[in-house]
Each structure stands twice: as structure tokens, then as C-alpha cells.
Amino acid sequence: MDDLIPTTQAQTWGDTLAEYRDWIIIAVFVLFGLILVQRMFMAIRRWRAPAPLHPRLAKFSGKSDADLEADRKAAGLIDATSSTNRIAGYDVLRQVEAVFVEGYRTPKEAVTGLKAAAGRLGANAIINLSQQRTGSGKCTAQGDAVVVKPRPIAPPTTPPPAPPTPPTT
Description:
Blueprint: H1 9-19, H2 21-47, H3 65-75, E1 80-81, E2 90-104, H4 107-120, E3 125-133, E4 139-150
Parallel strand pairs: 1-3
Antiparallel strand pairs: 2-4, 3-4
Helix pairs in contact: 3-4
């Protein structure tokens, strides 16, 4: 008697989904886990140091490791940097020159090179600092090399002593 009742397409799909429900849930969790692992892998790749270059290509890489080390030492002359035209706690005495560097592998190396260039010009700070990555993958940095001095710290002001009160009689 039940064979005579026609089954609909919806009933057939519903039965199929009920049969494979557990497998579908497992597949969704596995897919979610794979996406999460892929995102973590990409984040780790971004933080990694640049790849070592083949010795034949080293002359096209920009700066050698010895040049980068010399830049790090010269960058030690810079006391402060700012992406605005002011540095908190310092007074700008004079602007030395606008500086620009390019051809570095990472933004950090570009900023270090900019600090070195400013230090070699006699500056002790950089204002209006900005950095970019070009379409070819190289990094540039630019800013204004300035000479600054720390602001003097004002001594705390003490309130004047209270006037003496007249004696009461």
C-alpha cells in the first residue's frame, strides 16, 4: 500500500540530507579549520625576514648587509621621529633638508636608511615621516631632517603661602 504513495523530490532530498547530516557538519568544520590555518600561515609569511638573494643577484638587491649595518650605526644619531610636523617634548630649531630614500627590501630598512641619511646631514630628528611600498616591491621612505632640542621641564609651581590670620580677641 505504501508503494502506491508517490514520493516528492523534497522528501527525497530531506531524507538524503538527514542521512549525511553528520558528514556535512564534519566537512564544514574541516573547511573552517583549513581556512583558519591558511590565514595564520599568510600572517606568519608577512612577518618573516626577506628571502636571501642568490649571490649573482645581490648587486641588484639595493644595499648589502655591510651597508645596512653602517646605516644602523648612523641612524643611532636620530633621537626622535614623527609622522606629523611636531615632536612631543621637543622644540624644532631648524630644518636641515628634506630626505628621501628608495630601493630597500622592507619598510623597516627604508626607515633605518632615512634615519642614516638624516644623521649624516647633521640632523637629530625626522618629522613628516612616511613610507611606501612601490609596485615593484621595493620600499621608500621620506621625511624632513630637523635639528631639535628637548623642551625644558618647568619646575612645579607651588602656591603662594597663605597670609597670616589676625589674632582674635
